[in-house]
Amino acid sequence: MKLKQFALTALALAISGAAFAADYDLKFGMVAGTSSNEYKAAEFFAKEVKDKSAGKIEISIYPAAQLGDDRVMLKQLKDGALDFTFSESARFQIFYPEAEIFALPYMIPNFDTAKKALFDTKFGQGLLSKIDKELNMKVIGIAYNGTRQTTSNRPINSIADMKGLKLRVPNAATNLAFAKYVGAAPTPMAFSEVYLALQTHSVDGQENPLPTIQAQKFYEVQKYLALTNHILNDQLYLISNETLNDLPEDLQKIVKESAAKAAEYHTKLFMDDETKLIEFFKEKKVTVTQPDLKPFKAALQPYYDDYVKRTGDAGKKAMEEFSKLSQ
What is the pTM of this model? Predict the structure, then answer.
């Protein structure tokens, strides 16, 4: 009798579970790890979608590059093998070289300008159209993802103090250009090696957004922070067109609205962090300086010229439009 009752209970639970199973099980891949603001925002997005869809959509998050690096995940989105991922606007330069403009040092001074550059310029609208029609994915949200600053083992009060500074940068053209044109000695290095390199003075400094500087505890081995504000990072919320088209219109709307809301939360996390972190670093006995950035931007002009030369008419038009945004 007890065995029969147990079997009936198990059957009831199975039926109950099936009744609440999601109609759509979707995957969100990302490079950042579980302690990041990006992960918090992705969790917010997944919960918002689940709640607003009454459980019809369930989103599983795969952080820390479990599904591959950003290039791999963009390809998975293009092929319809992945549903969601993050990417910076500038990352699309791997498909369209002129998109590098989004990461040119000092080209985009703030997040409002970043949004206008993507959505309100002919260049940005053209890029969105190509992402949609040629890469089979859509941008459904844009968030602020921090601005890169410089830590060092000596104070940086002006561009003159950058001269000869062995600055660790990622092996990316725009970061290398920043270091080179302001007079530093660019030193590409794997991110995992940076703390020890700073500690042993193999390099004199590094550049990253403030939340990254805190998370990696670079303040333990670098006692100077210069607010160089050289590259603003955005973060796009991307969905595969195959995924979006598979959803009925009401659920498409929920996904888009949830992405917009998550992007706002994402932006707030980074902006709140940046406001608090200046004080945090000061409490850790880090000297914070604010050098005049006009000479920094002026020093990058040769790189702007090189960008136009490399990207031709498309780059020239983008530069004209973007320059007007920050005037």
Answer: 0.91
